[in-house]
Amino acid sequence: MTKRDVVFPAGRQALYERNRYSPAIRSNGFLFVSGQVGSREDGSPEPDLEAQVRLAFHNLTSILEAAGCTFDDVVDVTVFMVDPESTFETAWKVVPEFWGSAPHPTLTAVGVTWLYGFDFEIKVIAKLPESAAG
User: Judging by DSSP bridges, how do beta strands 106-112 and 74-82 pair with one another?
Assistant: First the structure.
């Protein structure tokens, strides 16, 4: 097996190493990003839902930037929400700040019962720009 080409955002490598997973892996011209939550620097959840969603997008953006990407390079999105019936509208108010203009990436939304104290998680697959495809 070839060694994984891991992408770490600035300042959060210890958090990922402590939790034993990679924030993102470059492979075959794509960037596969692990689910990002609205965690503070210490890894704890941001308690306000709207702020938590915004922070999840900021954490995602940091990883995309570390790989030479932007949200415009994202081709597929999966979001997970605890109790989506009551959280969807609040969470989705934040999306236009980061989503960009059409055509938008594909989207799968999944309602879950538990996200380790978080209410929202987003994972993506992005097409690496030719210069970042490594």
Answer: parallel
Nearest-angstrom CA–CA distance, 91 and 112 = 15
Tally of structural domains, the chain: 1
| Alpha helices, H only, 1-134 | 13-19, 49-66, 84-92, 96-99
> Residue 67 is part of a domain; what is its CATH number?
3.30.1330.40
- Domain range for 101 is 5-132
- Distance (Å, rounded) from C-alpha 74 to C-alpha 97? 15
Closest of 19, 28, 18, 24 to residue 6, by C-alpha: 24
pTM: 0.92
Q: List the structure tokens of 69.
A: 């990407």
Per-residue pLDDT of the chain (134 residues; tens, 9 = 90+): 678 999 988 877 777 777 788 899 999 999 999 999 999 888 889 999 999 999 999 999 999 999 999 999 999 999 999 999 999 999 999 999 999 889 999 999 999 999 999 999 999 999 999 876 55
